[in-house]
# Entry
Amino acid sequence: MSRLMVSVSGVRGEVGSTLTPQVIEKYTLAFGSFLNGGSVVLGRDSRVSGPFVSQIVKGCLLATGCKVIDIGIVPTPTVQMAIEHHHAEGGIAITASHNPVQWNGLKFMDGNGRFLSPEKAARVYAMGDAGEWHLQDWQNLGSEEADTEANQRHIDAILNLDYVDADLIRSKKFKVVCDTVNGAGGLIIPRLLEALGCSVTVINGDAHGRFAHTPEPLPENITELCEAVKQEGADAGFAVDPDVDRCAIVDNTGAPLGEEYTLALAVKLVLSKKMGRVVVNMSTSRASEDIARYYNCTFSRSKVGEINVAEKMLEMEAIIGGEGNGGVILPELHLGRDAPLAVALTLQQMAESGKTLRELFLELPQYHMVKAKVSIEGMDPDAVLQRMADKYKEANINLLDGVKIDFENSWVHLRKSNTEPIVRVMTEAPEMEEARALADRFMQEIQSAG
Ligand code: MG
# Structure
């Protein structure tokens, strides 16, 4: 049985086993009490289990005196924007993000529209685990209202961005295929594309939550989209995960660019228009770093996790950033990963350059990444990482989040898992063989470090 995952990215578990009504109840009662019964935006992705989770969440929020603003089936970034729109004290997105259909979970947001800070999240979880919450009496129970306009406001906000010239994009009449994997994206991505004058073919567009394929938008899961782009002779293909914060791009030849290049393209577009700082997480491709250097812009890395990137972006006053897994963050819109935004920025770049996606991709720094994991059963993960840190202390090493070692043309990032006895090994190099060899080398070194 899988474990319940409780982290800065929220709470996730499998329905019928780890994500029980009791788990949903204790953390939501804690969250409602933590907000002192303020107003809370509630949205969910399209999972079949969504109504079950939603009704418990709503009941708990009402019990702690919160005003619930239910925005229905929406992307996670739409919840974040709706919090700002309503000046709410917080929000909850009911989703297990890219996890398969049997999962669901809760992403907790603060009144600023960002995820709860790691400190606040820890406080809410501790309150939930300790049964520390405050139930209101019958006169002070919360109330409920619906807002059905959140998706449309999200689309309008993107069309109104300075970086997006909607008329120019419309004039190109792009042919686009999108795969929203029966997630919340079906309710926003096709509408956005139509608003940008695209002729749109939608696959897996019904937001019924029975995902047509493994929902993480990795190349191996989006073959249907690649095929459709080829068949249609489309200019672009876009795949999003069920809660629409991650976007993967397929080029006009039907080749998946890999999620890392969604952010690289966005960084290039933004920096080509404006000087400013860039923040990405430790595991993100060096492509964005090279682009920032090309434009003489300051580049920083944060710990992995959307809230960590968002907080670092705020601190650095960054103008663009995100995570290499297809998560683009533009503070001008809001400080969270946003797939509809990534779609619009990509089309903008195609429209203003007059180049195909293949051509745009080939102009970007070329890297290959390997994501592997190595079993450390019976070993202490912190001790293993410490030994690796000691061994490479003379190298260009960063210990902010696990162990990251930068070499001249490549890097390796080692992180422990909080749920399994493994160390994740991520490498990147200009050639795939080199990235593989580097991963193999570090996997061996980790095992012998035990
Ligand atoms: Mg997601």
About this structure: The pocket of magnesium ion is lined by residues 97-98, 241, 243, 245-246 (CB under 6 Å). The chain has 15 helices and 20 strands.
